[in-house]
Specification:
single chain; about 270 residues; alpha+beta; four-stranded antiparallel sheet; 3 helices; about 25% strand; disordered N terminus
């Protein structure tokens, strides 16, 4: 009878491509697959705590097999955040050119857009396509309906800076995905308080009232994202880089001003 049992075990182990070890009891080991093999070769898969019958032999196999080969290398991840983990510091130099069209302010951990081009006549981006959102001469509308942030400052400028809009990116885009500034997609218009942190000096200061590291800057009026008092939701705050001032003078839907993007901060 013992000889017949060994033959049955040999057949089972061969068909399952394992070399099972015969145990006196199942033992409750949850890291293995447990079975009971009858003299005729009939096999039952059982729980770790189930005892085999008197005419069965307990066998078990390891659940975990050998480690497989290392997989292929995945695609390159997104560019790291130059402001990620930033700790505000007074260490000089205060401003760092990240060499990707952005400037980081180490005192606030804000990252700013660096403008390009040469200061000249303003370009109305609501009347023409401004395919280069970083050009220093572009001017935009804050709101197209009066109060909501739905002017081309948001729907064109920020869309291009964040990589959701670019030329030819229509039904069958030819250059999709659109490039985003510095590889990031969370650019926005600065608040009034954020804008005031990069004035080169207190009011009044010389035009343009900003460190040259920020690239060419028109000494004119720039939109902030800050809306005026709740009593005047159609008015937004502006800053003036000609003398370092600020005002809540201007209706969002009837004025076209310069813009500069920002992201991050603490």
């Amino acid at each position: 009878m013992q000889i017949i049992r060994l033959v049955a075990l040999s057949v089972v182990s061969t068909s399952l491509s394992f070399l099972p070890s015969v145990a006196a009891a199942d033992g409750g080991d949850t890291t293995q697959i447990h079975a009971c093999v009858a003299a005729g070769g009939t096999t039952r898969i059982v729980s770790p705590t189930t005892s085999c019958r008197s005419n069965e032999t307990p066998v078990h196999w390891s659940i975990t097999g050998p480690q497989g080969p290392i997989g292929l290398t995945g695609p390159q991840g997104p560019k790291g955040d130059p402001g990620g983990g930033c700790v505000p510091t007074a260490q000089l130099p205060r401003f760092v050119d990240n060499l990707d069209g952005t400037i980081t302010d180490k005192t606030t951990c804000l990252t700013w857009e660096k403008k390009t081009g040469t200061v000249g006549a303003s370009v109305d981006c609501s009347a023409t396509t401004c395919s280069d959102p970083y050009n220093v001469n572009n001017v935009y509308l804050w709101s197209s309906t009066g109060t909501l942030p739905n002017g081309d400052a948001f729907l064109d400028f920020l869309a291009r800076v964040n990589g959701t809009l670019c030329d030819n990116a229509t039904t069958v885009p030819t250059n999709w995905p659109c490039p985003s500034l510095g590889g990031h997609t969370d650019w926005r218009l600065p608040t009034l308080a954020e804008f005031q942190t990069i004035f080169a000096a207190p009011f009044p200061c010389f035009s343009p009232c900003i460190d040259p590291i920020f690239g060419p800057t028109v000494g004119g009026v720039y939109w902030s994202s800050s809306t005026s008092l709740a009593l005047y939701p159609a008015v937004a705050w502006i800053v003036h880089f000609g003398q370092g001032g600020a005002d809540d003078c201007c209706f969002k839907s009837s004025n076209k001003f310069y813009v500069r993007a920002v992201r991050g901060g603490k």
